[in-house]
Amino acid sequence: MTFPFGRWLLAMATALSLATTPAVAASRIKDVASVQSGRDNQLIGYGLVVGLQGSGDSLRSSPFTEQSLRAMLQNLGISTQGNDSRSKNIAAVLVTANLPPFASPGSRIDVTVGSLGDSTSLRGGTLVMTSLSGADGQIYAVAQGSVVVTGFNAQGDAASISQGITTSGRVPNGAIIERELPSKFKDGFNLVLQLRNPDFSTAVGMAEAINRYATTQFGGRIAEARDSQSVVVDKPKMADLARLMADIENLVIETDVPARVVVNERTGTIVIGQDVRISEVAVSYGTLTVQVTETPTVIQPEPFSRGETAVEPNTTIQASEEGGTVAILNGPNLRSLVAGLNSIGVKPDGIISILQGIKSAGALQAELVLQ
Predict the structure, then answer these.
(1) Is-contact 336 276, C-beta < 8 A?
(2) Global confidence as pTM
(3) Coiled-coil stretches, from where to where (predicted)?
(4) Is 173 in the same domain as 87?
(5) Same structural domain for residues 275 and 361?
(6) Whether 172 and 209 share a structural domain
(7) How crowded is the C-beta side of 153, counted as CA atoms within 13 Å?
(8) For the segment 19-47, what is each residue's pLDDT rounded down to a tens digit?
(9) Looking at 177, 210, 237, which one is the last position of a domain?
(10) How far apart are CA 262 and CA 7, in angstroms?
(11) Strand, coil or helix: what is 66?
(12) Range of the domain at 113
């Protein structure tokens, strides 16, 4: 049993809203904003993966792998001078990780590894101790452990099969944090909350909600919307910054976003926001299909004749046009907009073309995002 896209889209719109007034969503501050001092920090390092089953780097094609192997063995007290290594069980990798906010020494984080050379697979390998540095050049973590690879490949003399990526993987809890960030959360004199989706209405509403809470608890206003993305909260003299943040992040506010239509032409996905409006416009949609069929005929000469076998081309061209329906679209809300598009009876790719045409005509009162 199939369910047409247009009917599904109309049903979704009906379930979302039947009113013509814009809808607002109620969310906690912790769900729509983050603390500026509580952001992640990116770490990077260079390391070696050993224990591969003949799927590592070819040392002649990847000289940096051989140099790293020699340096590692020398650090372990093993001399390799004068010996040519032909091992295929080692691969050079780039190791990356995100250092979470307020991470303390001794805690563990996940790391991601990716091959740098001509290795064909990291499956079954083990990452050797690798130091991870931040943008300031300081070492913040050390990674080591078994590499987990989700992809696989197999090949024979005449066929091969592969799924996913075999030259990258993860080491769950593979890095131990050795150094904490120099800044302390409680050393600050204020909080800067950054909206994940910048919007002036949401920022002002967040500041007002925090001020209503502060007036009750501290007898004054402490928050101010700096711009569409950040809200600054001053710390009261007798307040604990951690407890203040715990109370603020659970306040419920009304969020608002600009009208936006997101279109993914590759998958045919269309997402229409609640506040999208369309000025009155006439739309005609039609599809022209041209089918070309080639049926060549082989002509054989008569027996004992001097003729030659020939191929006579035979081409058939058929053209058909469907659609051509003209509809008047005037969308005061999401439901009427989807109903108007559904009345034309087009598929998702046709709706994408119509939305692009309406935007070019200046009748789509929303941002059109193409992915």
Answers:
(1) no
(2) 0.64
(3) none
(4) yes
(5) yes
(6) no
(7) 16
(8) 334 445 688 998 999 888 777 889 999 99
(9) 177
(10) 19
(11) helix
(12) 41-177
